[in-house]
Write a structure and sequence with these properties.
It is built from 12 helices and 15 strands. With 443 residues, the chain is α+β, with helices and mostly antiparallel strands. It has a 7-stranded mixed beta sheet. A 4-stranded antiparallel beta sheet has the order 13-14-12-15, covered by helices on one side. The chain has a two-stranded antiparallel ribbon with strand order 1-2. A hairpin with a 2-residue loop joins strand 8 and strand 9. Helix 11 crosses helix 12. It is globular and about 80 Å long. The two termini are 42 Å apart. Bound molecules: phenylalanine (PHE). Its EC number is 6.1.1.20. It holds the Pfam family tRNA-synt_2d. It catalyses: tRNA(Phe) + L-phenylalanine + ATP = L-phenylalanyl-tRNA(Phe) + AMP + diphosphate + H(+).
Length: 443
């Protein structure tokens, strides 16, 4: 029996494992907002209408840089993990830390960096314009910090942590937001580094020729090398988890799949009465290392979602709170140290208000794209007042050849009580925009 896949914030399942249906990259609307170019992180990219799917609201998110804000819990958590890795992993002689920290990589990356370099299959669902934000056919907003693995290894980094904001088109609810934050770790080893200085009679090798690819190892790796790598990887991450969740933390390893690691695993921690998925990791595909010019070494990588961890560790109930500028939220983290234990005290006790919107899509309009576009549009107009969006009904009428969608929008403010009248105005604007942009017929 396959185990049920939890919906998770890091969203590994959707990103890597959803079976590809008819992959489509066609644009969905004639009148979408397409600026001529986008300038981000000191570089200018010329947009291409056919691929562009970035909304003004998303651009605003790129400007916040939450990880650099010391009063943000994500910043505290980042520093806590970095401090731990620096303390525990040091060069021989103990003078300096092993892992370089990279937190200013450009957030727009090439399709090669985001997908090809990581051996993502060409027809993989994560490449679609309904899943990833594109500027043009060649460039997109990074969908994970793994997008920097290949180029950093190529530049000669053997051991590094990459931290940053990443972007995925997704639904909006208390656990999902189009921008979130990840930390990536990569460690490469030569034979000596992996096995220790060679001793007479003990000749351990990294590679074997004509080897077989099994559940446990890649075809190029010697069995011992693969096992030691896996051991070191798991040891490193269990140690990190104990730092975050306490010495007595209960953990378990689950097999996983990522295109660029094998074997691959997920680590789960028992917290608050349930098993919580904390990170994804694995032994880096040798093909990746070879193409990055590090084929003589072997290595592992891990990636973890910072929001997911911070929500659990600090008791933050809603992912949108990380973006709050409310001093009621921020003052709870201001001036704190990474090692402090902090429990967030909720500030919003305001009631929710919900309204539905249902419509017929124009004939032949792609239903999956409409969903992604709908989440963006609603968020764009409703801004922070939109707490959740859910598609609650979807059906196809073969007689008219039309598809109907119904979305439930839950409005709630963290700051104040919303009146029905004021929500009506926002909801009306959203409705108008659906008609204007997508030519839908309200039901
Ligand atoms: N990039 C993966 C994700 O976003 C996580 C990961 C990183 C998995 C490194 C394995 C190794 O979901």
């Amino acid at each position: 029996m396959p185990r049920p896949i939890p919906r998770l914030f890091l969203n590994l399942y959707r990103f890597y494992s959803t079976p590809a249906t008819s992959a489509s990259t066609k644009p969905t609307s004639a009148q979408k907002w397409v600026p001529e170019k986008l300038e981000l992180d000191g570089k200018t990219y010329i947009s291409e209408e056919k691929y562009w799917n970035i909304s003004p609201n998303l651009i605003k998110l790129t400007e916040r840089r939450l990880l650099f804000d010391e009063a943000n819990p994500l910043n505290l958590l980042k520093r806590r993990i970095v401090n731990h890795m620096h303390k525990k992993h040091r060069k021989p002689g103990n003078r300096s830390p092993i892992f370089a920290v990279c937190e200013d990589q450009r957030r727009i990356v090439s399709v090669f960096e985001n997908f090809d370099s990581l051996l993502t299959p060409l027809d993989h669902v994560s490449r679609r314009t309904s899943d990833t934000y594109y500027v043009n056919r060649e460039y997109c907003l990074r969908a994970h910090t793994s997008a920097h693995q290949h180029s950093l290894i190529k530049q000669g980094f053997d051991n590094f942590l990459v931290v940053g904001d990443v972007y995925r088109r997704d639904e909006i609810d208390r656990n999902h937001f189009p921008c979130f934050h990840q930390m990536e770790g990569v460690r490469l080893y030569s034979a000596d580094e992996l096995f220790g200085t060679p001793q007479p009679g003990k000749d351990f090798k990294l590679f074997e020729t004509n080897g077989e690819r099994t559940k446990e190892k890649q075809e190029f790796h010697a069995f011992d090398a693969a096992k030691v790598l896996e051991l070191k990887l798991k040891e490193t991450l269990e140690d990190l988890c104990r730092e975050l969740f306490g010495e007595k933390a209960q953990m378990r390893w689950v097999d996983a799949y990522f295109p660029f690691t094998h074997p691959s695993f997920e680590l789960e921690v028992f917290f608050g009465e349930k098993w919580l998925e904390v990170l994804g990791c694995g032994v880096i595909e040798q093909k990746l290392l070879e193409s990055a010019g590090a084929g003589s070494k072997v290595g592992w990588a891990f990636g973890l979602g910072l929001e997911r961890l911070a929500m659990v560790l600090y008791g933050i109930p809603d992912i949108r709170l990380f973006w709050s500028t409310d001093t009621g939220f921020l003052h709870q983290f201001q001036g704190k140290q990474p090692g402090d234990s902090i429990q967030y005290v909720p500030i919003s006790v305001h009631p929710q208000l919900y309204m539905d919107i249902s419509f017929w899509l124009p004939e032949n309009h792609d239903s999956t794209h409409m969903k992604s576009d709908a989440y963006d549009l609603i968020r764009n107009i409703g801004g922070d007042l939109v707490e959740q969006v859910e598609i609650i009904d979807e059906f196809y009428n073969p007689k008219t050849n039309l598809t109907s969608h119904c979305y439930r929008i839950i409005y709630r403010s963290n700051e104040r009580v919303l009146t029905k009248e004021e929500v009506n105005v926002v909801h009306g604007k959203i409705t108008e925009e659906f008609i204007r942009l997508y030519n839908v017929k309200i039901r």
